[in-house]
Design a protein that fits this description.
Blueprint (H helix, E strand, L loop, with lengths): L2 E2 L2 H6 L14 H8 L5 H15 L1 H12 L7 E2 L1 H9 L3 H23 L4 E6 L2 E7 L2 E5 L8 H14 L3 E6 L9 H10 L3 E4 L2 H10 L9 E3 L4 H10 L4 E2 L7 E6 L5 H12 L6 E6 L2 H15 L5 H11 L1 E4 L3 H11 L3 E5 L3 H5 L7 E4 L5 H6 L25 E7 L3 H17 L3 H13 L1
Parallel strand pairs: 1-12, 5-6, 5-8, 6-7, 8-9, 10-11, 10-13, 11-12, 13-14
Antiparallel strand pairs: 2-7, 3-4, 4-15
Length: 440
């Protein structure tokens, strides 16, 4: 891994964020699919339009063209879901259930902190907090299986009180959804499951088809085409965010275990070639030891080539002069994950303003957070932790304002409202208030 001691160089290289458009994309595959050269944005726009116009027929067509799956129907039956769950290894099923319990418990504690129903705020004002009616959950899939993403998205929605949860996930080339994904859907309480992936799934959830109902909000991570689709349908439907390639900063001082730091970096790097794994340390000695450990552990990885490419393109170690400088770099970068292996970690946590999740100490590796700790692993990426939060029950709740003024308050506020309305040239607004005051 690169080791950088020049902070300005680190800012212009490792810590420089590149736009999503700079990622190398399969343009040849796009040309093969659509018969002409299109940018990813144009391809996604065409898919969305096609799904809006042709509904299920378009989804079946794209399943064959993009996933190689010849489907006769889109929805997975309850019988198939039950059978899949029964065929999952008992030990693995127990692990999913334990993770689900932790996730459910964490989000239930969040929900318990929030008032429900109609709330009187006094002086004729109030609000109603209510869950969304129907949400769409997207889980990446196809040849791989990500049951953890299903748990981490569907369970917070269920705890929030959402009426109906729709899961969309890509089919394998054989047309089936991986059993683990279906087991997770059953455990998490998803109501319906559809074998639809990519931008076409986002379009179907946003606008509805003959089989797939339109939802109020779409949540969950995906590839660049899913991200672009979520971006394009936003406004017609709510979205949780635009989660891009995953990223971790390990912030460590000379008390840290080099082997643990290296393991955390490699765990991040093996996600995919676009993953970012960076360590910031106050110790040059630790930087050297971690670098050695990364090389030693790398040879043992099944996904070695992916991890190597990730570290080569986006990974590295930054040596800083002190913790103040380290914290400044972390806040500027706003990582999805921040692993703290430092003395007096609590004092450092108090100074972190921008991070999706903070994992404190040797006993709190990010990997446990990915699967079983409790908080959702759907977190803000690409620096969006500056202004957004991890997925939580609040993503599935909405607030309606209530205004019920008495006549005394109307007489007090009415003249001010009328004055502002006339200043804006909206005389009918002013008249509506003045008429009420005369009749009060």
């Amino acid at each position: 891994m690169r080791v950088i001691q020049d902070i300005e160089l680190a800012k212009s290289t490792l810590l420089k964020r590149l736009p999503a458009e700079s990622v190398k994309l399969p343009l040849e595959r796009i040309k093969e699919t659509f018969g002409k050269e299109l940018t990813p944005e144009e391809a996604v726009r065409q898919i969305i339009t096609d799904v809006r116009d042709r509904g299920d027929a378009a989804l079946l067509d794209y399943a064959e063209r993009l996933e190689g799956a010849k489907l006769t129907r889109l929805e997975v039956s309850r019988k198939e879901i039950t059978a899949a769950r029964n065929n999952v290894d008992e030990e693995l099923l127990a692990a999913l259930q334990t993770a689900a319990e932790r996730i459910r418990d964490f989000h239930q504690k969040q929900r318990d902190l929030l008032p429900t129903g109609q709330i009187d705020l006094g002086e004729g004002l109030g609000q109603v907090i209510s869950p969304l009616e129907r949400v769409g959950i997207y889980a990446p899939g196809g040849t791989a299986s990500y049951p953890s993403t299903v748990l981490m998205t569907a369970i917070p929605a269920r705890v929030a009180g959402v009426d109906e949860i729709i899961l969309a996930t890509p089919p394998r080339p054989d047309g089936h959804i991986p059993p683990l994904t279906l087991a997770a859907a059953d455990i998490s309480g998803a109501d319906r499951v559809f074998a639809v992936g990519g931008a076409q799934a986002i379009a179907a959830l946003a606008f509805g088809t003959e089989s797939i109902p339109r939802v109020d909000k779409i949540c969950g991570p995906g590839n660049i085409f899913v991200i672009l689709a979520k971006k394009q349908v936003f406004g017609a439907v709510g979205i949780d965010g635009l989660q891009g390639p995953t990223e971790t900063i390990v912030l460590a001082d000379d008390c840290a275990n080099p082997g643990s730091c290296a393991a955390d970096l490699l765990a991040q790097a093996e996600h995919d070639e676009l993953a970012t794994a960076i360590m910031i340390t106050t110790s040059p000695e630790l930087a050297h030891e971690v670098n050695v450990e990364v090389e030693r552990q790398l040879v043992e990885l099944e996904r070695r080539k992916i991890a190597e490419r990730s570290l080569e393109q986006r990974g590295g170690i930054i040596v800083v002069s002190g913790m103040d400088e380290a914290v400044e770099l972390v806040n500027a970068y706003a990582p999805e994950h921040l692993c703290l292996i430092v003395r007096d970690a609590e004092s450092v946590v108090a100074r972190i303003r921008n991070a999706g999740g903070i994992f404190i100490g040797e006993s709190s590796p990010e990997v446990v957070g990915d699967y079983a700790a409790g908080p959702s692993h759907v977190m803000p990426t690409g620096g969006t932790a500056r202004f957004s939060s991890p997925l939580s029950v609040t993503d599935f709740l909405k607030i309606t304002s209530l205004v019920a003024l008495d006549k005394k308050t109307l007489k007090k506020l009415g003249p001010h409202a009328a004055a502002i309305a006339r200043a804006e040239g909206l005389t009918a607004h002013a008249a509506a208030v003045e008429r009420r005051m005369r009749d009060a």
